[in-house]
Amino acid sequence: MLEVRNLRVNYGAIAAIRGIDLDINAGEIVALLGANGAGKSTIARAIAGLLPFQGDIKYDGRALRPNKAELNVRSGLALVPEGRGILAQMTVDENLLMGIYCRSDKAEALEDIARMRERFPILAKRRNNLASLLSGGEQQMLAIARALLSRPQLLLLDEPSLGLAPKMTDYLFGMIAKFRDEGLTVLLVEQKARQTLKIADRAYLLETGRVVASGPAQKLINDSTVSDAFLGGHAAH
Ligand SMILES: Nc1ncnc2c1ncn2[C@@H]1O[C@H](COP(=O)(O)OP(=O)(O)OP(=O)(O)O)[C@@H](O)[C@H]1O
Ligand SMILES: [Mg+2]
Question: How far is the CA of 104 from the centre of ligand 1 (A)?
């Protein structure tokens, strides 16, 4: 579904992504793991069409051009950005409406919003509240619901668990695993490596703009070099 070849992204003189290859097959949860500054968000943003890049990104066999975010959304790619990107001074309902701006089938899109309120009851309960008044977990639900409203085939989630309590993180990861069961394909960017590998099919481990390991999630979990570097050793949780 997605084929990334020799991707390079520079911020001025800084080479943030130094030639990476990455594949995502339809129906997979693929994890992109790495420490602060490894380049995870840069990759997610390049795929979403929010950055200039060099190299090739093919989505459903078609080459994606840099900086074409809206076009990418229309062709089924949706990004939930790091920090959620919700509009804090707008209500929950207004944020959901932002999710259908690119839909031409407005009547059906409004029905999708109603379905999102059923799927995430908190969004119905708090519909007229400012988004800034939601908890971190509720804001993440709102950001995900908004992304789902573009009816994506590939959902890019950039550190969805950031700042969430462990219980909320468990709930969220359970939800992401269910997305795959519904046929959605997911790129899950995370720092919580061990937990992410439990729900992912495959993973890429990133260090300063390069892929240093990749493979089936189960294999990486049991690989001692990987586990020492990324999971804090076998004993850690
Ligand atoms: N707008 C920018 N201008 C210049 N450098 C940037 C910019 N955004 C990111 N960088 C640099 O690019 C590198 C990769 O950053 P990126 O945000 O992709 O990492 P990350 O893996 O998402 O980190 P985190 O886990 O902290 O979100 C870092 O060295 C960072 O300092
Ligand atoms: Mg990031």
Answer: 35
* pLDDT digit string, tens, across residues 26-76: 999 999 999 999 999 999 999 999 999 999 999 999 999 998 888 888 889
Atom 26, ligand 1: residue with shortest CA distance? 36
Ranges of beta strands (E only) in the chain are 2-11, 14-24, 29-34, 54-59, 62-63, 77-80, 154-158, 185-190, 202-207, 210-216
| Residue 206 near residue 39 (C-beta atoms within 8 A) | yes
Indicate the SS3 state at residue 232: coil
Output the CA 109–ligand 2 centroid distance in Å: 30
| Cα–chain center distance at 86 | 14
With a 6 Å cutoff on the Cβ, whether 39 touches ligand 1 is yes
Q: Please state, in angstroms and rounded to a whole number, the distance separating the CA atoms of residues 66 and 82.
A: 19
Decide: 143 and 83 in contact? Cβ < 8 Å: no
Residue 121 pLDDT more than 70?
yes
11 lines ligand 1 (CB under 6 A): yes
- Pairwise CA distance, residues 17 & 24, whole Å: 18
The pTM of the whole model exceeds 0.90 = yes
Q: Whose CA is nearest to atom 18 of ligand 1?
A: 39
pLDDT digits (tens, 9 = 90+) for 187-233: 999 999 999 999 999 999 999 999 999 999 999 988 877 766 677 65
Q: Which sequence spans correspond to the domains of the chain?
A: 85-151
**Cβ 42 under 6 angstroms from ligand 1:** yes
